[in-house]
User: Fold this.
Amino acid sequence: MNSNTELLRQLKIDKAHKEAPGGGPPWGRIATIGGVIVLLLAVGVGAWGFFARRPVDVQVATAVAPSTAATAGAVLQATGYVTARREATVSAQITGALTEVLIEEGDRVAKGQVLARLDDNALRAGLASAQASAQAAHATVAQNEAQLDQALRDATRQEALVGRGLVSKQIAEQTRTQANTYRAQLNTARRQAQSADAQVGVAQVNLDYTVVRAPFDGVITDKAAQVGEIVSPLSAGGGFTRTGVGTIVDMDSLEIDVDVNEAYIGRVQPAMAAEAVLDAYPDWRIPAHVIAIVPAADRGKATVKVRVALEQKDARIVPDMGVRVSFLERRGEAHADAPKGVMVPSSAIVQRDGHDVAFVVADEKARRHSVTLAPPVNNDMRLVTAGINAGDTVITAPADTVVDGTPVHINPSTP
Assistant:
């Protein structure tokens, strides 16, 4: 009974909360509820705006101008560098101070041309000393020859006198022994003269080492020492001793080394036609072909090195230039024009609202571009004939959440 009474008391309407006079609604309570709803909506809109403005991490690639490789059936593209098969850092074969350096970067030199000279005063003195010793040795030889000749004549006369009984046989034998002694001394003097001549040769070679010459025809790409510095074939002097005078490169030996992913190395064959495009001259197409596939893989990069020969030599091609190589199924026509448009990764092209589009990064935002596509060249690249310009940064594999104006952040791991 008491419990029922308590329940009835709780259900009783407090007079303080009765409707306003005239039976109207409680406007104060409605206003409060409306304010709460507006506040919640504002918070929601603010949160949506925060997350909507948060940049999206994306992978990107650069749209590049196509080459004739696109029409010649490119089966693979790879990047690499121009290298010289014949390159040498030229140094002296002895340690010495430079008195002349006759080269500058860019100079063309011929085989045997003098590049530098070392201080040769001590070596010239050594050569003069060796020559004097050799002359003395040859004078000794001449003296011993004269003594031997006289001893032989004396021995002959003594033997004749012995036959007539005028002198004893012992005296004749002593004379003959003296002649034999002079003969032995002459042989020794001749050996000493030969040794002295060899010392002259050594001194001459050392003196010749003070002149640094070009080992082959080429171009000087680096001048490593100046007059007054000490050069040595060994780094004996630490930072105060140069180990080379300069670097010479045989420009006729230039070729390209490219690293091909081992998953695609099966597409490359020896003597395969190729086309090279230097990063410095993107509109210049250089015919090339595969020299060899180096039979060794790089475990860290999972690549195999391929040597590519350049079929055109030009002064614009220099070592260590970056280059892109397209390996071709067949040799393109010499007069073939590069197709119009730009090349982009196939993953950069997506379907939106039934149209082919690509997203270009501009001012850290994704900008939607409708594109016109040419027939596929390969599974990796597509030729875009309209809608994108060369050099544009396109988003590869854009997510469905990426729309026109979406803030983006380029992923640092982008190749």
